[in-house]
Amino acid sequence: MIVQKYKDMLSGKSVIRQLSEFATARGAEIGYENVFDYSLGNPSVPVPQQFTDKMIEMLQTESSATLHGYSPSLGITKVREAIAASLKERFGIPYTANHIFMASGAAGALAHAFRLVTEPGDEILTFAPFFPEYNPYVNLTGAVLKVVPANTADFQINFEAFEEMISPKTMAVLINTPNNPSGIVYSKETLEKLAAVLTAKSEEYGHDIFVISDEPYREIVFAGVDAPCVSAFYDNTIMCYSFSKSLSLPGERIGYVAINPACKEAETMVVMCGQISRGIGHNCPPSIIQLAVAEVLDLTADLSVYETNMNLIYNELMDLGFTCVKPGGTFYIFPKALEEDAKVFCEKALKYDLILVPADSFGCPGYFRMAYCIDTEKVERSLVALRKFVETEYPNR
Amino acid sequence: MIVQKYKDMLSGKSVIRQLSEFATARGAEIGYENVFDYSLGNPSVPVPQQFTDKMIEMLQTESSATLHGYSPSLGITKVREAIAASLKERFGIPYTANHIFMASGAAGALAHAFRLVTEPGDEILTFAPFFPEYNPYVNLTGAVLKVVPANTADFQINFEAFEEMISPKTMAVLINTPNNPSGIVYSKETLEKLAAVLTAKSEEYGHDIFVISDEPYREIVFAGVDAPCVSAFYDNTIMCYSFSKSLSLPGERIGYVAINPACKEAETMVVMCGQISRGIGHNCPPSIIQLAVAEVLDLTADLSVYETNMNLIYNELMDLGFTCVKPGGTFYIFPKALEEDAKVFCEKALKYDLILVPADSFGCPGYFRMAYCIDTEKVERSLVALRKFVETEYPNR
Q1: Which chain A residues touch B105 with a CB distance below 8 Å?
Q2: In the structure, what pLDDT confidence band is assigned to residue B315 with cuts at 50, 70 and 90?
């Protein structure tokens, strides 16, 4: 018999995906260039030329076995060494290859992290607003995701609610900074306070509580914003990184888990990831992509367009009287809707070919997300539509 | 706390891996060319030039978003279409894109197949000799792998033992033909009889029993051998394919699940795979590799060396008086050891720099496996060592 729980999931279609499909269908009618599609977080800038050049060079010169042979189960050693050296240089934390496990993107990294530190029934806390895929990612392991309500004042952590919800069943706290969907970067003060709470609670409960730090937006941080390294604040930190956004190659499924060397059993945890892989059919990111990424570790795609877009949108939102915390990074912005039900608000926006995502599924009703990884020229045209939408639908706001 | 079950697995090191590491260490002493390393099933022939040419052409001409963007969660549509068309043309089964789910190699395909049709506590039966990784692959899902003893006469299925072991808890039967480690191809008669038993038992138990057909060696079949398509014999067949061996790119993690269109809910099962992915951090094989493989679907690497090697080894084994069923495909051969304990036999072989793998972990004690995906010149030199080993250690056999 086929398994009912997966079949049941088919009816719960993601609102982001529905809106993206609407945008595509509408684009077929009026030209996709006329649809202001802010639905999907799909990088819009090209991969660095050095990555492409390196791929071609390797294909022309390296042996088939070197390029396409099995990767060792923890990842290709020289790739792990290069990543550890880059992290050490950049953050001053003594990572070695033995702290790095190569994973197929952030989703692959998180799949390992959850299994490292939770058993069925254990709880993982995360903070609203949050990436809705965390629900199936965690809950399908048998662990339970609990969401701490948002601090809508600045989208830092709501510590009061957090301290009420943390319990002896809490084995890990899942954070995402810079944050999808708010665009907010957790401050030094937030991370210090988080570490203090977790240290005290680990002591009180008599077991370690881990921070699982999902960092795909680490390289997209705007001018004047300090984005502190999460691992520097708390020993028991499992960093989950993806090159999807920094290098604009989300389809190539490449990232890593980096266990803080200060973690008691850091090296054991890395080899445990190799065991977890056997149960989930993982078996390493593609060899040729591992090798190519190792050559461009300290490069990024040209990410400047995201900040340009953010400033244009943020300024217009302010001018139109929206409530919105200014993003510190990512390619998302997270304003408050102009009426209580953000679903209704986003529905009305569709008439103006504005594809905005209501934030109910992000754990923050009343808000909406715009993913501005699109051309700046289109952003500029969209703002005309946004003004018309607001002035027509909410004339007395 | 870190999870004990994965930590416990670290002590159970695979005998294949241990022997492979021994071979590498011995190679450092005497030159790897002098170590007759039959331990690992790592393809030795290069990827087809057309694959490399296509990769370079795409990197030079296609946009970054096309090559490296997110793949749809079931795989890139035109790739699924091309695979379905190829399967339909070749096997006469009416596959469409809606029956194909792109997976990261056979391991990824199997991870989805097991979750499609079993819940924790359900049983999957497989047949000795079998690929030992099936143990963690299945058991870490919560289902239970049970192994039907081998039919050592010809390594077809031991139906007597099978019918004793099948029970209402059996939700799937996992087969692998051409087989690792025996090299045997299941005959038409075996597959017909298997289908008949499963049809009768499905009826008797009142639930479907699926065949999960692991087919990474499908393209490596030797002259005069008929390798029937498993799906043609039984409607409820989930084909798990990998391009690792046929195209010699095991590191690129590319394969697929193909659900037999005759399966009652075939198309639903494919979209369910997309849900399963969310729980195991899968998210599709690499986009660029999907696109490149679609261009060389009906090609293979030059696989002829495997048959050449097989014939050399088989003839020598016969001449030396071994008991061995002649392989019909793969790059494995599976002779009976010259003493009861194959571990002792293989240990003695090490003195002659012959790296042979005892088959206890393959569910078939007393036998050993040779993976002859190595250069023919080395095979020829190894046979001198094999003769010396046998004549010295077993003079009175």
Answers
A1: 281, 283
A2: very high
Which tens digit of pLDDT belongs to each residue from A161-206? 999 999 999 999 999 999 999 999 999 999 999 999 999 999 999 9
Q: Kindly indicate whether the ipTM for this predicted assembly is greater than 0.85, answering yes or no.
A: yes
CATH of the domain at B259: 3.40.640.10
Nearest CA in chain B to A2: B117
Instruction: Determine the residue among B20, B71, B118, B272 to mutate to test chain A binding: the one whose Cβ has the most chain A Cβ atoms within 10 Å.
Output: B272
| Residue A64 in domain | no
Q: What's the structural domain count of chain B?
A: 2
- Among A10, A111, A118, whose Cβ lies nearest the Cβ of B280? A111
Neighbours of B12 (CB within 10 A): 11
Overall pTM surpassing 0.90 (yes/no): yes
CATH code for the domain in which residue A381 is found: 3.90.1150.10
Same domain, A133 and A203: yes
Q: Which domain holds residue B277?
A: 49-294
- If asked whether residues B335 and B267 sit together in one domain, one would say no
